[in-house]
Amino acid sequence: MTRATGDAAGEVSFGPFCLNVGQRLLAKDGVPVELGARALDLLIALASAPNTLLTKQDLMSAVWPDVIVEEGNLRFHMTGLRKALGDGRDGARYITTIPGRGYSFVAPISGSSAALVPGDGAVKFRHANLPNRLERMVGRESDILDLSERLSRFPVVSIVGGGGVGKTTVAIALANQLAGAFDGAAVLADFGTLSDPSLVSPALASMLGIPVGSDDVRPSLLAYLRDKRILLVFDTCEHLVDTVADLAASIIDAAPHVRILVTSREALRIEGESIYKLDTLACAPVDPEMTAEKILSYPASQMFAERIAASGVPLSLTDDDARIIAAICRKLDGMALALELAARRVEAYGLSQTAALLDQHLALAWVGSRNAPPRQKTLRATLDWSFGLLSDLDRTVLRRLAIFVGDFTLDAAWEVIATPSLDRPALFGAIDSLVAKSLLSANSFGAMMRYRLLDTTRAYALNSQIEDDLADLAASHASYYRRWLEQFGPDWPTLSSGPERLPYFLGINNVRAALEWAFGDSGNVDVGISLAAAAVPVFQAMSLFPECQRWSERALSAMGEHYQESREEMHLQAGLGISRMYLHGGRDALPALTRGLEIAEGRGNAVDQLKVLGPLNMFHLRTGDFKSALQCAYRCSSVAEATEEPSAISLGHFFLGNSLHFGGELGRARLELEAALASDPLPSRAPGSYVGFQGRGLAGGILARNLWLQGFPDQAAVRARQAIKEAAEADHSLTLCIALLGGIAVFLWRGDLESAQEHIDWLISRAGLHSLSPYVSVARGFEAEIAIRRGDPSAGVDSLRRCIERLHASTYEVFTTMLEISLIKGLAALGKVDEGLERVEKAIQSVETKGDFCYGPELLRIKGNLLGSISASDEARHCITGAIAASRKMCARGWELRASCDLAALEADLGKKREAATILRLVLDEFDEGHDTDDLQAAQDMSMHGGDVPIVIEASHERPTRRP
């Protein structure tokens, strides 16, 4: 490396600094920075090769070229340089240390870092032919840094990846960045223009200016390179890979200072080579709530948007526009060339139509830049180039592998695409070859490798497929995934986290494709029915209820008489009922569930019965028939015990505990719910998937409600947060939504409105994502209650009316009583006492009829308050004392505390302060926790004032306020 000094007039800037080499001046915001000569030399050397590892020896040679110095000198001046730059202060970062190796300049630079290379060095090598790097390259910063570090350690670095991924772009950018470290001696050899292997060495020699005067130019070439410090870029080597590999091996043996950077769809596989797999650009995930700003932070979206703007299209993206861009990027797998070609279509078609055309695979023929190599004019040309390099066997296997959508395993490939003439060794050899040639990607999930064709490659291969072969392949593919679901479907309830479920989740894309084929014009209905029956429990376990409903309905409508009362019909009827119940909450789920139970009972299998009894219990709860739900829960518990399956028994405890809770039997409910929680956290294979959740996963949210009612507000909050945390970690949306419903109720009862609002937002987001519209309505109702408490009863009441009407319309009644209580309180705050009394009477009657007795004491208390506000004191006292009695019978100390405060307020109004104080003291003595909650603070305030400060509990955070 030459010393980074001289009289070149180069100038670059970074952060607030400007560095001028010719004047040997560093300025900050225009003010010169005092910097020693050696420190300045260090800065010039580092800034000359940004994002590149410079070893300690490199830097000492640059700054002290003719003197032997110790590393201590380097550290001393490096410390001074960093101090002058303010490196590390206020988040500023200019130089990073690679421990034991050296240093790298990491700050973004404006202006070309080549300007810092001395004039004589810049022209020392007159055969340098690198094209200029792009002004801006998106999403490749970490690749450039990693590659430059590898080139400091390995003589050959090969950038390997599929066609159109951006290998050449990255290689040219890296070579431009490193040219200064090679005194400007960097040469690009584009082998994509060659077809004859014998021309490889002569072509390179010609680019280096070596006369080509004999048949064998290699000796002259190696002799020329022997003492050179030079960077050679071998571009597009896959079609000449054997010849290029032999040449590269000879060069690194003969010329120790030469570095070779290779781009190829296949590695050279020589000693001294470091293989760098260049991935496609990262894409934004599917998220209907992601903003444009967040989407455009992903490299693929960023590149696509920039290419649209570069084509002259005015760009002002809304969130919806950005989501279309994200979908296009995912469809194209983040492939740089494909994104470039698609972005050029936006000017003619617009975003939405461009996305639609992609689904028709028209992108294969879209034309790109005029100056692009012929093999990259279109995606089809790129794939034609790759396809032309394959053997006949490789082509056959690639075409057949196109039947897979997304990821697949080696076993799946063998089961689906093997033929009598394609045995296992031949198939595995072809897959190995396709991976090596970057036409098939391979990724490990634990000990298992999974393979995948990019969508554009798959479309190309399908277009070249023979129709008869495709039909046979589709049948084989569907049959395989039916067996796969039957084998692994029961595993779903045992997988406790998203990462554990990921390999299974990836297989679902193939299940979807197989279902589409089976029920299509050229499909096989019998295969489709058995496939749908096997898929139903997995769709439920993944909270994919719209798909569960769709395929259950499709399969049931296609069934012939020979499927009547079959296991397939039982599964499909249960799946149809469950999905309808969660999506709509309506009674149209009951016929399917009832039919499923009839078949299960006829088959006499306890596990099958539980798979339908559990959803029936949930159905009765959701439709507001709490008494029927309790009877069904007893049956669930009994059947679950008969299975002797731990996870089934856990479900039985949950169903019974849940129903007992709403029925007001809080003591027994707690025992059942705690038993469900005590089950093995990783249950064995069992029926959980047919219900859509595990008993253990849901019990925590209901137990939290139960604990608050029993008078343990702090334990309730802890349990609620734990249940939500576990459900979120399991990444199971239905379980999370139900845990959130229980947790939000606890937060509202405690008066923790901030926590309630935070979790309401979460519930709306997750429930909306999975089309669980009844949960969204409940969440909006909870949100309206917060508005009432925060002093906006008018808006809260209007919102609650709408939410309750929507829930009635969908017959989702499990939370309507709780929301009705909130509405009545809002009406009281607005002074609409008559309407409040009318609604509270109806709610009390409804509880008696439906059986959600857990709300009975609170309704009586509220009725008493409303009566008291119109001077019906005797009736008010009767209702409130009735609420206290009902609370005690139920052991619901949470309700009892509120009613006791109201009774104390009535006594205080009559001048009976001693009686009021006694009432408060007796109820306060029952609480050992929760003293910071709204209800207990209100009771303590009243007790301190002898019971004569009546307040509105839950109405607002303003204290004291006269009770209505």
UniProtKB/TrEMBL annotation:
The keyword NAD does not apply. Keywords: DNA-binding. It comes from Rhizobium altiplani. PANTHER family: HTH-TYPE TRANSCRIPTIONAL REGULATOR RV0890C-RELATED, REGULATOR-RELATED. This is Transcriptional regulator. One of its GO terms (biological process) is phosphorelay signal transduction system. It holds the Pfam family HTH_77. The lineage of its organism: Bacteria, Pseudomonadati, Pseudomonadota, Alphaproteobacteria, Hyphomicrobiales. The keyword S-adenosyl-L-methionine does not apply.
